[in-house]
Write a structure and sequence with these properties.
4-stranded antiparallel β-sheet, globular, alpha/beta
Length: 405
């Protein structure tokens, strides 16, 4: 895998940031886009545009076929059993809200419990919090250990007879912890509990197999997978999509509408109300082709090598403290520097063309548990190199010099 050639596929790296080459280490926030994805959006709008699933003219039929081709590509990429188990949403956030709202509406009552973890992104906490306010449910949190990890034991300890859903991240966007989601799924099902997995951070970096994993719901954020913004995927087992009520009402999700009754469309149309993000869906097919061309195994090997190298050089850097040391870790390097606020770190690094994220990363519960108000985070993508990590380390040293003065 020639990373220099891969990097050339991303137009943004031809730009200068403050007269420096761009070192982009914020892929956990959102990945950059290869030219094939950008071009596909342009070509669709200039040569092929039409709404999908409505009209019978040439452009409409062609656009609908392209849209559905992407659904099939997603199905194959995550090894879902049925392409109708793939629902397109505005993002992973909407996918999680869809599950929380529809499942909550039908199955949850006052006193029922949802089990989350202390690692969760706000997107996998706030929707459940709404149900706590509206339906009187309770939320329990499985606790991290001293390494920033979540064990099966910590999950099992929090399960009660009132637990009606387990909703957990696959890969933490702060500690990088990769949770044993298959084993947790088996545990949940052994107790008759459905499980939803937030796959925002895992989908760009890990090989996904829904039939092997056997989870009930899995949420994906396409803009972190070298794809367009404004698009997400909800995988859900067909039995759940058949059973749960629609999330939104409007055009495209109905079968028949009368003054006193409505019947809903077949799957997955039932959950795709209104005009969808057609250009984004069609362009996401190019993202999947891009990932398949490189190979998920190759991406994982490359990023693991970078992660090991990054941890090694940052551990040797005095006053830099890495956050979390989980058993299995994804391509995330969160850290603090003694005496320097993370926002100041990010600002100074930006002057050197190094893009990282600073803040609580939408994980305030975790930061509070760690005794931190914020942290700095460098996150890796397929286009990163050891040179990028050397530049990160060099820029950190420059930051320390400025504050020592």
């Amino acid at each position: 895998m020639n990373i220099n050639n891969i990097k050339k596929e991303f137009p943004i790296f031809s730009n200068k940031i403050h007269n420096n080459d761009l070192v982009y280490l914020d892929s956990a926030n959102s990945s950059q886009k290869p030219l094939v994805v950008v071009d596909r959006i342009y070509d669709f709008y200039t040569k092929e545009f039409s709404n999908v699933g409505r009209s019978v003219h040439y452009l409409a039929v062609a656009a609908t076929n392209l849209y559905e081709n992407t659904r099939t590509s997603v199905q194959k990429y995550i090894n879902a059993k049925n392409k109708n188990e793939i629902v397109f949403t505005k993002g992973a956030t909407e996918a999680i809200n869809l599950v929380a709202n529809t499942y909550g509406q039908k199955y949850l009552k006052q006193g029922d419990e949802i089990l989350l973890t202390e690692l969760e992104h706000h997107s996998n906490y706030v929707p459940w919090h709404y149900l706590r306010k509206s339906k009187g449910i309770n939320i329990n949190f499985a606790e991290i250990d001293e390494h920033g990890d979540i064990s099966i034991e910590s999950i099992e300890k929090k399960i009660t007879s009132k637990t009606k859903m387990i909703a957990i991240t696959h890969l933490s966007n702060v500690t990088g912890a990769i949770l044993p989601v298959k084993e947790i799924t088996q545990l949940a099902h052994s107790k008759g509990i459905p499980i939803m997995i937030d796959g925002c951070q895992s989908a760009p970096h890990l090989k996904l197999d829904m039939q092997d994993l056997d989870c009930d719901f899995y949420a994906i954020s396409c803009h972190k997978m070298y794809g367009p913004t404004g698009l997400g995927v909800l995988y859900a087992k067909k039995k759940w999509l058949d059973d749960l009520p629609p999330y939104q009402g409007g055009g495209g999700m109905i079968n028949e509408v009368k003054k006193n009754d409505i019947s809903y469309g077949e799957l997955p149309n039932k959950f795709e109300a209104g005009t969808m993000a057609t250009a984004q869906v069609i362009a996401f097919d190019e993202s999947i082709k891009f990932l398949n061309k490189i190979g998920v195994d190759n991406i994982l090997t490359h990023e693991n090598n970078l992660l090991e190298y990054g941890e090694e050089i940052l551990r040797k850097n005095n006053s830099v403290k890495l956050i979390g040391n989980p058993k299995k870790k994804g391509a995330v390097l969160s850290f603090t520097i003694d005496g320097i606020h993370p926002h100041d770190i990010a600002t100074i690094l930006d002057e050197d063309g190094v893009a990282i994220r600073a803040g609580h990363h939408c994980c305030q519960i975790l930061h509070e548990k760690l005794g931190l108000t914020a942290s700095a985070r460098a996150s890796l993508g397929v286009y990163n190199t050891k040179d990028d990590l050397d530049k990160l380390n060099e820029s950190i040293n420059n930051c320390k010099k400025i504050f020592n003065k």
